[in-house]
Amino acid sequence: MARENKSRYALLGILSFHPMSGYDLKKQIEQTTNHFWHEDFAQIYPILKQLEAEGLTTSTVEKQEGRPERHIYALTEKGWGALRNWIAKPVSSQVRRNELLLKLFFADHVPVAVSIEHVQQFREFQLVLQEAFQRLKDSITQQHPVSKQSTYWLLTVNYGACVSQALINWCDDTLAQLGQLDDTTT
Amino acid sequence: MARENKSRYALLGILSFHPMSGYDLKKQIEQTTNHFWHEDFAQIYPILKQLEAEGLTTSTVEKQEGRPERHIYALTEKGWGALRNWIAKPVSSQVRRNELLLKLFFADHVPVAVSIEHVQQFREFQLVLQEAFQRLKDSITQQHPVSKQSTYWLLTVNYGACVSQALINWCDDTLAQLGQLDDTTT
DNA sequence: CGTGTCATGTAATCAGTTACATGATTCA
DNA sequence: TGAATCATGTAACTGATTACATGACACG
Lengths: 186, 186
Description:
The structure is a homodimer. By secondary structure, chain A is mainly alpha-helical. Chain A has helices at 7-15, 22-32, 41-53, 77-88, 99-105, 112-143, 148-180; strands at 57-62, 70-75. Chain A has two domains: 7-88, Arc Repressor Mutant, subunit A (Orthogonal Bundle), CATH 1.10.10; 99-179. In chain A, helix 2 crosses helix 3 (41-53) and helix 6 runs antiparallel to helix 7 (148-180). The longest helix of chain A has 33 residues, at 148-180.
């Protein structure tokens, strides 16, 4: 089974909203899917060329004064088909790798204070995320009319908010447990 | 800043419990850290060679009849140092990529039923995980004496259980919302 | 007689990150 | 004057997955 490159579908998906350049794609991705998906220029530009070569997109050149040209990409019918087709396919299970848990799993070899620090850091980070999710929710509901698109978008934000809330609870529980461990016991 | 290979620390960490072969490492990882970390033979064997070349492990050969030799790796003092050092370092933030959310984000382009199916599948999967976590918890508490090691281990399992419970809640909430969308509205 | 386990590995490929390169404009 | 933004890209490297290769034994 060939590995399907998912980055290409991320790009096709964003292009489905409206035609834009690689530079715009990066910005759009940062503003919308950043909490669960991101792409780098070093992948975006080559993939865009590839998509065009495969007939999934077409491109036009916009000339500007004193600025580099903008290459505007738009979906073709074939591109739309590929996107819809991918969306409908079952989600392939993804790799979970969690460095915090890996360190905790081996935490026996270091003072408890180290793990407490890691978990506290992690908790801080989740709080920052919570705020970011709240701001994103607000901006979606304010700037966008109630539509299917905004509903789906909010669902992805809820996912993040839900998980980070659960993780904060886990942190509190964990910190309480770690507080009861001390370095003298086995 | 050079990327630090985390796989090597996973291997060093497992070896910290007791010396073993690459084959054993794979099995151990599957039995203990599987829900948040896994490694493949194609990475394990080359990394073991590398670790030995760097003096973090030593290896001895166990001959067997009618079976290939077993190469048993053990941590050196330097290996212990590298492991402890890594554990104490701050956790580097990790990439989040979530294909389900990516599909959901673009779900506007397909019938609502598609998304409902995806979310239901995901919910089923979380239920399976919940059961697996429960079994793992039971086996840890039954087979291992109460120790710091088992406490840390249980913390990692709690993490998974906690997140998957939150995700089940998110699924329920999401399914309710998707049920109210229909394909005629914008 | 086929599947699974034990036990090691290599080769090829794909994905992702970092660093490098260019060059104008705007803003503090 | 220096940093940030606009806008494109390439090269090198590291990480991870898949497929391939070998060969004996045990179990049903």
